[in-house]
Amino acid sequence: MRVPRAVAKFHRRATNPVARSLTPWLPCLGTLEHTGRKSGKRYRTPLLVFKTQNGYAILIGYGLRSDWLKNVMAGGPTVLRKRGKAIPMANPQIVEKAEAAPLVRPAPRLFYRIFPYNEAALVLTEIAGTHGTQ
C-alpha cells in the first residue's frame, strides 16, 4: 500500500511538526535529518525505522518519489535521531520490503512485516565508531 501524495502533504504541514518531537523516543519511530539536494536546507522527517545488525531499515510509505528519499539518495549527510542519540548514517540502498525483512532484528520484525507499506524499504548503515553521539 502506498499512501496518497495528498496525505503526505498534509502530514508534512500538520502532523510532522508535532511528530518530530515524539518520534525519536517511540519504538519503531525515528527522525531522519537530511539535506535538500537542491536547496541545501536541513530537513527532519519522522519515519518508521527498524534496527538491523549494522544500521536501520526504513519503510517507504509515500513512494519512491518522496523528497526525503531523493535527498538521502543524493548522498548528503544523513543522521537518524533515535532514543536521544544522533546516529550518522551512510550507504543508502532501496530494496524490496521483503528483501529487508530478514535484516530487521527479531523483536520488531513482526511489526515491520505487518505494517501495510509494501513498496520498498531504505536500508542505511550506521557509520562505524560513532555510537550515537549527541
Automatic annotation (TrEMBL):
Highest taxon above the source species: Bacteria
Entries under InterPro entries matching the protein: F420H2_quin_Rdtase, Split_barrel_FMN-bd
MF GO annotations: oxidoreductase activity
Protein name per the record: Nitroreductase family deazaflavin-dependent oxidoreductase
